[in-house]
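Tutorial, part two.
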Amino acid sequence: MPNLESESSALQQQSQSTETVITDEIPTSDPVSSTKKKIPAWIIIAIVTVISGITLALVFSRSTPDTQSSNNTDSNTPAEKITLDPAVIADNASPTETATWISFTNQTGEVQFSYPDTWQVSQTTISASGSSSTQTETASQQQIRLQLEDAQILITTNITQAPRVPTSYQGEAFTLDGHRLFKFTYLDPYTQTKQIGLANSSYNFGFFSLGDKHYEIFLSYPTGYTSEQEQQVQNTFTQILQSMKLPKQTPLVSQDWQNYIGAGGVYTIKYPAGWRQVETVNFTGFGPIEIGEDIIMGVSIYDTSDKTRTKVKAEIGKQFADRRQTSEALFVAGLKAEKVVTTTPSYPDWYSESIFITSGDRLYVIGNGAQRNEQLQKMLQQRMTNPTTITFEDFYHSFRLQGV
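Running the prediction step on this input gives:
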């Protein structure tokens, strides 16, 4: 029968001997050992994981700035395109509705514009006697009518003389083919229509002059139009005016007129060749040499701190107890101006017209010598060998402020 205790003791001794052998095979101090060991798998996995992590970190750290730089470049590009050049926008924009409009030139070739094909256009010639015909006549009025149901645009050219229609309402500034005018809106209680017209003056509805040519342009439509209908016809009217071309005006002032430089070069104004100049402290007058005792037209300069516009107006015609005075706004060489007309029933031939222009602390007043153009021309023909054709409008429209 086997001895169990001896066998157990033997097994224990064998086990202790085996453990001692394994411990002796693991190097403790010498990294280089002739005895090769088998590295555990978990250590290899850990080392690979660490190396992979470091590699990925290096790659990410190097690629991130480039990626961000690339992203910044992409995001900046659209930002630069947000602010577009208006010319580029215009070139890339789709054609407006006016691109399909019909071009029109009247019989005499004086007026050109475009209009939508939904409007009907017709033109007639009005002779001096007032009769209408479809034939073109020299210096006759040309009337162009555009019609859309109850709305119409009336354009009249070659008006012999623009009638003055004084009104109590003012117009807003409007530019027609480079000419600064005014646009009015007027409700006609008799015809139950709303009318929109152009004028030179802020107080003169429907008529304007360019050089020696007079025109009438206005739109009219029923007051019963809805706001949408109103907006539509008004927009069409404005677009037609924006497309309109008028004949180039010949200069009002003759080329042989002389240029006067006043106030040490502050302003210039033109006057007929051969006329004399009379200068005082704040006034320069002009008149024909043949009429030595008379100054026809002149320019006065005031310091606004000393003499206001109201004070100057009060002095014009103050010798007449029944004097009457009116004023209207206008433009002179692009400058805002005021025309003041002073008359007196006691002396119908006395007619003062003054143009007021303020610049800084100076007030410029251009005067007509208290006589109408017709009276002036008659006097020049009677008293001059070679009479000069001149109007007060010729004179004051030649006024220029230097540096303005």
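The helical segments are 4-25, 41-82, 86-92, 227-243, 309-315, 373-383, 392-396. In part three we will examine how such features are distributed along the chain.
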